[in-house]
Amino acid sequence: MAIPVEGFMYPNEVELQWSVLIVLYPFITGLVAGAFILASLERVFRVEAVKPTYRLALLTALAFLLVAPLPLQLHLGHPERSLEMYLTPHRSSAMAMFGFVYLWYLMAVLLLEIWLDYRRDIVLKSQTSKGAARLVYRALTLGSSNLSERSLHIDERLGYFITLIGIPSAFLLHGYVGFIFGSVKANPWWSSPLMPIVFIFSAMVSGIAAVMLLYMLSTRLRGREIDIRCLDKIAQYLLYTFVIDFSLEMLDLLQRIYEADESFRSLDFMVHTRLWKSQVIVQILLGTVTPIVLLGLTQVVKLNDVARKRIYALAGGLTLIGIFAMRWNVVIGGQLFSKSFLGYTTYKMSFATREGLLTAIALMILPFGILWVLVKLLPPWQEASSLPAVRTEA
């Protein structure tokens, strides 16, 4: 398959090294960080209105975090060699050190916080369940069956402390992804000191929007009434974060326009040709400006509950599309022009290959399957967690 090329390009620049799987990598990690930040609003900042989404946000973060490294593994020619970065750490490699950032967030923060928050429910279920479920819940207790008042108080305080650690850890998780791109000085499309900050706020936007949509969908599927007060508060935080994120992106754009260095002519050509649809139309107009206007409308105009729910659902869906487009424009767009700024190429995505569209779709569906299992095992609903005490140990 011939790849259309304009101008002068070296042979190693014609074919893109990073495919759609590398687009999924920052998108999925962003959902993880954003979902955890939303959960911290209730635990740390005592925003009681978002309490119905607290446990759902934690489980959502875990489901997507388990899938986050898979795009990188599939991209590698020898994925089994990835274990070497843990056995022989290479401190000067930003990509290699990210493995330790990932493990820290997974093992020391997210899993531990979920276990502490669910420990009472797990112990009670291990006493009341039967068959294989009983064995599963007994294994999840990790040998801790003490449900005394003092023990539960320790769980609460320790969980609060871990959440405090988890907030900067969530920033580090996705800010590090932005740092990896922003530190690649050979590419002027990525090399910006604002890149890590933009990635952090866009992660918060995507995670909050994803949890909001999942809460609305799961509540409807369970035949329960959506807590409109909770939804209003989530949408309010989504709007505030979105405005900050968009402002940072525009600030980065204005700085590039003002500097107008030797790469600006090439980047300007890219925006007006190769990336016009994906960046200007999909990312900015459809995925950013439209959701901000819709969310702002709910703040200034008094609408009924049904209208607000529909607007929130539409704004949340458009937000996820816009953030994905942003990741696409960063990863794919940054590879469509030569380092000499004299040539341009295109990206043709294959379908049923290791790094094709079918694989990308499967990777996006997988976290929802994992989340379904987690929800069945550890129900996040408030009424499900209100289990009667069976017996306690002093």
UniProtKB/TrEMBL annotation:
GO terms for cellular component: plasma membrane. The keyword Membrane applies. The chain crosses the membrane at residues 20-41, 53-74, 94-116, 158-182, 194-217, 237-258, 278-300, 312-337, 357-375. The keyword Ribonucleoprotein does not apply. It is found in: Cell membrane. InterPro entries: Electron_transfer_protein, NrfD-like. Keywords: Cell membrane, Membrane, Transmembrane, Transmembrane helix. It is a multi-pass membrane protein. It comes from the Bacteria. PANTHER family: PROTEIN NRFD (PTHR34856:SF2). Belongs to the NrfD family. This is Polysulphide reductase, NrfD. It comes from Candidatus Sulfotelmatobacter kueseliae.
